[in-house]
Design brief:
heterodimer, A: about 550 residues, mainly alpha, 2 domains, 6 helices, B: about 190 residues, alpha+beta, OB fold (Dihydrolipoamide Acetyltransferase, E2P), five-stranded mixed sheet, about 25% helix
């Protein structure tokens, strides 16, 4: 299968041409055979027919000459010379007919030997035999006629009349023989026609078969060419259609070394290149799309920021304007503040004196509180002594209690005589109990007093501490007020500097106003430019998306 | 101020004493059969001891422990040259012992084969209670039988409700001392 398509087509064409050429040559050969055959048949038949015609004419002429001689002899008025001439003519013609018969038989025998078909050979053979028979009859006729001629010469009428009848019969026989020979010739002609028809039929069939074979061969060659050329071409065409539809994923099965194989390999290479291109194109388009979107977003952001910037510049201009106004006010207020600060400095000096008095008072309070604390401590020591006394009293009351009980017991033991003593004992016990209750109350009160003293001691200590703290704070306040006074004086100087600075600031702000005007114009121009950039980036984005759509067509 | 409050308090004390003295005479005349009891406290419980069986009341003093003695016998004490057994009243009655030795009071009993002292938390005082008829129905004001008072202890001979006392403090349980001591003296 590695023969190239051109060679294949050429091979098929050559095969068909060769077949057609052979067919034509064969047909020509057959035609020439038919023509030669016909020529032979016509030439031979015509020769024999002409000879037979001559023979028939000569036989008839001989009959007429003999009849004329008989009539002349019978009429008796005819000269002798005329009779002799007639008989001589008859004899000459008879000689010629004899030769003719020999020619016919020889020719027929020769033709029989060289006849192209057995039928013709047979026909020629028969013709030769018939002609041989006719020659015999003719020789008998001549032999019979010679005596009559002798009679004629002798003017023997009876002999003439006597001979007349068998000669006529012989004459009829000869004519019939010649007629049979003619029929044999006709049979030969028919055989020749049959032969020609046979040759024609054979040629016809063979040509038709060869034609059919060449048609089959042509169909085979066409089918082979179709199989070898058209089918792979259709595969290639389908592949090309798929590629045209945008499917770059497939490859063509390109085997073999012929044109289709080379075409397939070339197409595969081309499709691979296309797929690579489409991939690169797609990636590039995606990048382009992303970049366009980023540009657009940046442009929008820039537009927004330019708007903001513009608004900010406007605000700044307004603010600067306000600053100009407020600068003037600052100057005015600073003058007022200077006056106020000077009066404040005076007031703070008065405050300083008051704070010094407060510190002294605090010190006095602290000393008194310390004295109070000492007194309270002394009282507390006294209450301790009271507690000891109460303990003693309690002990005494307890003993009294037991004593009263023992008394009651003794009284009970004494019986009736101890009844009044029991009353005294009971009274004693009651007193003891009351004394104990009283000591309990005193103890309670004393506890409260001690708690109060403790609280007082703590409160007094707290008071001392607070007084000390107050003193410290007064001192702090004094220092603070001194600092305030110093700072107020500084402030006066500072405000004087502020007034001077404000005047310079006013001049600077006027310059700033001019600069802001320039900035505003510049930002307006920038905004217009940014809008153009945004529109251009929108167009770019649309373009990139259209490109993406185009690139999406190609699958790979 | 302090002085004025003290004056008021003293006045109130005097008035209460006068009232108590006046009331006592009336009570004595009104109630004929009375029995005096020495009321002691052990923890939250109050016990009454028949005054006739009590010899002396003392403050607590050092106790010498006796080895091998019952749980109720705290030890022995020296009293006027004699050795006296000291019983914990609460322990003897099967109650929880609340007081620690060395504090509280000691009640010395009289009569019996040996002298016995009872350790109590505190001796409150002497209370005379109407001695009710054991056969008669419970009057509600006199001494109640143990069964009537819901008590089943052997050593308890009765219960004096609050109304039957001298008017100060709640009621007390009357202890049958001979029956109580029989356990330890036999």
């Amino acid at each position: 299968m590695s023969i190239s398509i051109g060679k294949r087509i050429l091979l098929g064409f050559v095969a068909i041409t060769v077949v057609i050429l052979a067919l034509g040559l064969y047909a020509l050969d057959q035609i020439s055979a038919v023509r030669e055959n016909m020529n032979t048949i016509v030439k031979r038949d015509l020769t024999v027919a002409r000879q037979l015609d001559d023979l028939g004419n000569k036989a008839r002429d001989m009959g007429l000459l003999r009849r004329n001689a008989v009539m002349a002899a019978l009429m008796r008025n005819r000269p002798e010379s005329e009779l002799t001439q007639t008989i001589e003519t008859w004899r000459r013609i008879g000689q010629e007919s004899e030769v003719l018969f020999g020619d016919i038989v020889r020719t027929a025998n020769g033709y029989s030997a060289t006849a192209p078909s057995p039928a013709r050979s047979l026909a020629w053979k028969k013709l030769a035999d018939t002609a041989g028979l006719a020659a015999n009859d003719f020789r008998q006729l001549r032999a019979v006629s010679e005596p009559q001629f002798a009679a004629i010469t002798a003017r023997d009428t009876d002999a003439i009349e006597a001979r007349n009848e068998p000669i006529n019969r012989m004459q009829e026989l000869l004519l019939a023989d010649i007629e049979r020979t003619r029929e044999a010739l006709d049979e030969g002609i028919a055989a020749g026609q049959q032969r020609a028809a046979d040759i024609y039929d054979r040629s016809l069939w063979s040509i038709v078969l060869t034609l059919a074979a060449s048609v089959l061969l042509s169909i085979l060659v066409t089918a082979l060419i179709r199989r070898g050329v058209v089918k792979p071409l259709e595969d290639v065409m389908r592949f090309a259609e798929r590629v045209g539809d945008g499917d770059l994923s497939g490859t063509l099965d390109a085997r073999g070394n012929d044109e289709i194989g080379r075409l397939g390999r070339t197409l595969n290479g081309m499709v691979a290149g296309l797929a690579d291109l489409a991939r690169t194109n797609r990636a590039a388009t995606a990048d382009l799309n992303a970049a366009a979107a980023e540009i657009r977003a940046s442009a929008q952001e820039q537009a927004a920021s330019v708007e903001e910037q513009f608004a900010a510049v406007q605000e700044t201009a307004a603010t600067v304007d306000e600053i100009t106004h407020s600068g003037a006010q600052i100057g005015k207020r600073a003058g007022e503040v200077i006056a106020t600060a000077q009066s404040t400095a005076q007031t703070s000096r008065a405050g300083l004196r008051a704070v010094a008095d407060t510190a002294k008072a605090m010190e006095a309070i602290r000393e008194q509180a310390e004295a109070v604390a000492g007194n309270i401590v002394a009282v507390s020591e006294k209450t301790q002594a009271i507690g000891d006394i109460i303990t003693t009293v309690n002990d005494i009351s307890e003993r009294t209690h037991l004593l009263a009980l023992n008394a009651a017991i003794e009284a009970a033991a004494a019986g009736e005589s101890g009844r009044s003593f029991a009353v005294v004992a009971s009274e004693m016990k009651l007193l003891a109990d009351q004394a104990k209750a009283a000591t309990g109350q005193v103890r309670t009160i004393l506890g409260e007093i001690q708690r109060g003293i403790n609280t007082s001691v703590m409160l007094t200590e707290e008071a001392v501490k607070r007084a000390a703290a107050g003193k410290a704070r007064s001192d702090t306040t004094q220092r603070t007020i001194e600092e305030i006074t110093a700072k107020v004086e500084e402030s006066v100087q500072t405000f004087q500097q502020i007034v001077a600075s404000t005047n310079q600031q006013q001049l600077g702000i006027e310059q700033v106003m001019g600069a802001l005007q320039n900035i505003r114009q510049a930002s307006q121009q920038t905004a217009a430019g940014t809008r153009e950039v945004e529109a251009a980036s929108a167009n770019l984005t649309e373009l990139a998306q259209a490109l993406m759509t185009l690139a999406e067509r190609y699958r790979h | 101020m302090n002085r004025a409050a003290e004056t008021v308090r003293r006045r109130a004390l005097r008035a209460a004493r006068t009232l108590a003295l006046a009331g006592r005479d009336g009570g004595v005349q009104r109630q004929a059969p009375l029995r005096p009891f020495l009321v002691c406290t052990c923890g939250a419980d109050r016990y009454g001891l028949p005054l006739a069986q009590v010899a002396q009341v003392l403050a607590a003093r050092p106790v010498t422990a006796v080895p091998g003695a019952p749980a109720a016998l705290l030890g022995v004490i020296a009293l006027s040259g004699r050795v006296v057994s000291l019983l914990g009243l609460a322990r003897a009655l099967g109650r929880a012992d609340a007081v620690q030795s060395g504090a509280g009071h000691v009640v010395v009993l009289r009569g019996g084969a040996a002298t016995v002292a009872l350790a109590v938390d505190r001796v409150e005082g002497v209370v005379a209670v109407a001695f009710a008829d054991p056969d008669g129905p419970a009057s509600g004001a006199g001494l109640l039988a143990p069964a009537a008072a819901g008590l089943g202890a052997e050593a308890v001979s009765g219960y004096a409700p609050a109304q039957a006392g001298a008017g100060d403090g709640p009621g007390f349980v009357v202890v049958d001392l001979p029956r109580l001591l029989r356990r330890y003296l036999s």
